[in-house]
């Protein structure tokens, strides 16, 4: 079968190619650029725990080597400390330059036998038929490429989106920030800070080797920031934080970051899909555009994997747009609703009825991946089954509990995601202290193993000593992207089969033969 064509070799495109490879699906990554990224320390990415774990699973070594975890999160109001938040193990946000993230993903992709990277090549036309999709490129590789599907991960000015004729409405310049990367010593080593006072809003986030990224909120449509004005901002801010005296600093990189909010009307057109900045732009109030793109990857990769290996229903492929576009639209709506209140200093009770939330608390949610501005999304399952109540609602992300894997190893549950398989978890207290050989053939296990083997999609059977809120003998069905699909009281083979069939949205339909559909760009 033909590989999946991925257009764009930024973090999202490279992550998608690796996620597909992890599920045994080959891909061709078409990249306009020469395969090297400009080093820009002031252009950074914050990854929260679940997305950092996903990128680590994909083999990106730069997270460990070049990323910095927040030791804590501080807020200050008019120069006075307001709040300090610490993090549990493995839960701290991870901060690193975007070029380091991209390089780590590219190195992993270049080393994987199922990923073909093609640089210096520009897409100029697409053609779909009932069996696949064909892309034509010019440049270093002027040729036709044949794929089972194609995913446009080619950024805000996406050629794929233009070829498909998909509109990209939204708001321009919703926020602007002056940005600087500098090396200095601050009074709170390794701790991120949000400082609001008067008309000013400044954040500082730690990087490796004593480097910090500082962001100053600017008027959305204000004047250009001159080098002298930026130096004044730096010196005045550092002086406020360091007792009135500006400490020595080494200015490494600067820029002005303009944030737009846009959402593509459609994310799927036949065998072509959009992901990342090609599908959405966000970033105001601390939200993370790259992280949302990585969530697109985790949602789409297992569905394309199922389509490639076994065939997938149209409803399953449509569910990518339904789930991810709905989630990003809610994020954008939350930011748009909160922004006037945050920027004018009033109206937060209207935004969050019944809650006395400060602006700092709401912004903290965005920066730390919590609440409507940042929390990991929950997806409405096609057929919610909740025979047993647990701490996780159906559609929500599963708790990362220790589980015993098929090979007998005990690992965190989310470490087993990314293989394109369903996960069936039996909650069996006490199994953690027994040798796997003794309980594998005892109790519910033989019947559950037979039920898992008969499911309509590939699945692994796991055992957990405990799961939050779940009584003994609860069976959980987990989607390949780590979202809870169903819970059952014991082994119910027919119900488990039906729930697994609902996850894959039914059997693949036989596709009718349709005429080829061609999309051609006009490119100078």
Give the strand line-up of the largest sheet.
6-5-14-15-16-13-17-20
Cα gyration radius (Å): 24 Å
Helix-residue proportion: 25-40%
Overall pLDDT: 89
Question: Please, could you describe this protein's structure?
Answer:
With about 525 residues, the protein is of the alpha+beta class. It has 14 helices and 28 strands. The protein has an eight-stranded mixed sheet with strand order 6-5-14-15-16-13-17-20, sandwiched between helices. The protein starts with a strand and ends with a strand. Residues about 350-355 have low confidence and may be disordered.
Summarize this, please?
With 524 residues, the protein is α+β, with helices and mostly antiparallel strands.
Descriptive tags:
14 helices, 524 residues, 6-stranded mixed sheet, alpha+beta, 28 strands
Question: What are the SSEs and their pairings?
Answer:
Blueprint: E1 4-7, H1 11-22, E2 27-30, E3 44-47, H2 49-57, H3 62-66, E4 68-69, E5 72-77, E6 80-85, E7 94-97, H4 98-111, E8 115-118, E9 121-128, E10 133-139, E11 143-147, E12 150-152, H5 159-164, E13 170-183, E14 191-197, E15 200-206, E16 211-218, H6 227-241, E17 250-263, E18 268-269, E19 272-274, E20 280-281, H7 289-309, H8 314-344, H9 348-351, H10 359-368, H11 371-374, E21 385-386, E22 402-404, E23 410-412, E24 422-427, H12 436-439, H13 445-453, E25 459-464, E26 474-478, E27 484-489, H14 493-503, E28 517-520
Parallel strand pairs: 1-2, 1-12, 2-8, 5-14, 12-19, 21-27, 24-25
Antiparallel strand pairs: 3-7, 4-7, 5-6, 9-10, 9-28, 10-11, 13-16, 13-17, 14-15, 15-16, 17-20, 18-19, 22-23, 24-26, 26-27
Helix pairs in contact: 1-4, 1-7, 7-8, 13-14
């Amino acid at each position: 079968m033909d590989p999946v064509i991925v257009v764009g070799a930024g973090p999202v495109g490279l992550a998608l190619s690796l996620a597909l490879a992890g599920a045994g699906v080959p891909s061709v990554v078409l990249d306009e650029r020469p395969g090297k990224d400009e080093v820009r320390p002031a252009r950074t990415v914050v990854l929260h725990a679940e997305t950092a774990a996903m990128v680590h699973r994909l083999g990106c070594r730069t997270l460990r080597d070049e990323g910095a975890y927040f030791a804590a999160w501080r807020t200050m109001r008019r120069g006075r400390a307001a709040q300090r938040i610490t993090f549990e193990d493995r839960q701290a946000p991870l901060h690193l330059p975007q070029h380091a993230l991209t390089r780590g993903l590219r190195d992993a992709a270049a080393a994987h036998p199922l990923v073909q990277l093609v640089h210096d090549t520009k897409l100029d036309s697409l053609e779909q038929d009932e069996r696949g999709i064909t892309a034509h490129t010019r440049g270093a590789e002027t040729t036709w490429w044949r794929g089972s599907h194609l995913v446009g991960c080619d950024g805000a000015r996406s050629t794929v989106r233009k070829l498909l004729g998909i509109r990209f409405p939204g708001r321009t310049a919703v926020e602007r920030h002056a940005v600087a990367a500098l090396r200095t010593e601050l009074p709170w080593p390794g701790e991120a800070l949000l400082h609001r006072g008067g008309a000013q809003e400044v954040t500082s986030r730690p990087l490796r080797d004593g480097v910090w990224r500082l962001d100053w909120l600017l008027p959305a449509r204000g004047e250009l920031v001159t080098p002298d004005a930026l130096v004044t901002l730096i010196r005045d801010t550092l002086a406020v934080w360091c007792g009135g005296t500006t400490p020595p600093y080494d200015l490494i990189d600067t820029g002005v970051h303009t944030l737009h909010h846009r959402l593509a009307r459609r994310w799927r057109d036949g065998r072509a899909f959009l992901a990342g900045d090609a599908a959405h732009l966000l970033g105001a109030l601390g939200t993370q555009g790259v992280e949302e793109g990585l969530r697109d990857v985790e949602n789409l990769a297992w569905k394309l994997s199922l389509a490639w290996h076994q065939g997938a229903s149209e409803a399953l492929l449509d569910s990518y747009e339904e789930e991810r576009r709905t989630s990003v639209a809610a994020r954008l709506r939350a930011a748009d609703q909160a922004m006037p209140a945050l920027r004018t200093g009033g109206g937060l009770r209207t935004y969050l009825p019944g809650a006395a939330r400060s602006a700092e608390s709401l912004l903290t949610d965005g920066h730390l991946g919590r609440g409507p501005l940042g929390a990991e999304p929950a997806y409405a399952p096609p057929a919610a089954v909740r025979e047993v109540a647990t701490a996780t609602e159906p559609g929500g992300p599963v708790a990362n509990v220790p589980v015993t894997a098929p090979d007998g190893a005990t690992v965190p549950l989310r470490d087993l995601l990314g293989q394109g398989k369903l996960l069936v978890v039996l909650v069996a207290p006490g199994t953690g202290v027994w040798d796997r050989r003794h309980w594998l053939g005892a109790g519910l296990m033989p019947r559950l193993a037979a039920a898992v083997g008969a499911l309509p999609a590939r699945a692994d059977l796991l055992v957990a000593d405990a799961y939050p809120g779940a009584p003994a003998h609860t069976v959980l069905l987990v989607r390949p992207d780590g979202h809870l699909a169903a819970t059952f009281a014991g082994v119910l083979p027919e119900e488990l089969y039906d729930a697994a069939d609902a996850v894959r949205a039914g059997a693949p339909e036989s596709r009718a033969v349709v005429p080829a559909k061609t999309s051609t760009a006009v490119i100078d």
